[in-house]
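Board notes (copied after class):
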Amino acid sequence: MSAPSTIAAALASLLDTAPSWLPQVDHWEIAEDTDTWVLSGQLAGDLREAEAFRLLAPMMERAKTAHSDDGRLVKVPFEWDGVPGQVWYLRPVERYVVPERCATCPTLLAGAGNQFVRLGGRGAPVICVPCRDRMHETWVREAAVRELGALPMPAGPEPQQPRTVLDRARAVLGARLSKDDLRLTLGSVIDYATELKRQRNVFRDQRNNVVATNEQLLAKVEESGQARLRAENDARTLTRQVAELEKANEGLDDLRAKFEAQMSRAETLDRLLREAQARVAELEAAPAFLYRAEHPDSGVVLGTYSNREAAVAHCEAIARREGATGLVSWVPDDGDALSPEELTFFDVEYCDGDDVPVQTCTGYVVTPLKVAAEYDAEADE
């Protein structure tokens, strides 16, 4: 048994050579067929059986073994570089197509659940079972009438007899017959007339049925037309309503977007308001102080500020403008948190005998002032 690698090498050689007896193949595959690895290819194209066998004929002529055919799948063997191979063809499945209606009446067939028969092989008309029964009844009646002599008989070697009962009646008009023969002929004519009357009644009933059926079909057609018009009107109405709803939906989308923007803005304002309220509450809860920048010795008040940094900056700016230099230090009068602080400069370039920088007090003071939140009558006494 050839290994798959050997078969792959043979396939490469076969594709390079492309012998003339090999038909066009849709695809190749390395397959296992009856416990044997073979090179297998499908015949290309959607071919009829005659055309497929015509293309496979050169392979069949040079094949050492006969091809296989199970009625559905045809396999033609070949050998290339000592490797077994085959080209196969799958016969298409033929299916009969059921027509929409009966060939002789308006009865629905396809998908309607009505029974039907095909009058022959492929391409033959398809009729419903009631039509088949009516045809069969007509054939039987004609055969019976033919046997009685009312219809033409097939030509044969025997002498031709009068073809109908009327022909036989006319033939005896000029002949001399006995009363019995005349009575027999008259009886045949009466029977024939009775049969014709019966057939006339049958045909009249069939005609009436056909007329009634046609009227019903016309009524159904008219009803279907009215239903179609109503459906079209309903469809147009629904289309218009859908368009109006879509347009209204667009307006709702705009309103929704504006509402969401307003809600976002309101949430932002609410958050800022809560933060401001919290800050106000914090400020109200904390003791309030003012800071006065002044020079008490000269009685000059430089300014009053809500924070210490501004008062300190004012004092330092005035002192430096007056020529003070060195390291800045704010020296409190005592250890109290509300004690005034005096601006002092230390000149590191000039030291006294103990190697201590010369200290210069500027007289500028920052005094914390506690702001009262309400009037204290006792403090005023």
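Comment from the instructor: The first helix runs from residue 4 to 17. The CA atoms of residues 146 and 154 lie 10 Å apart.
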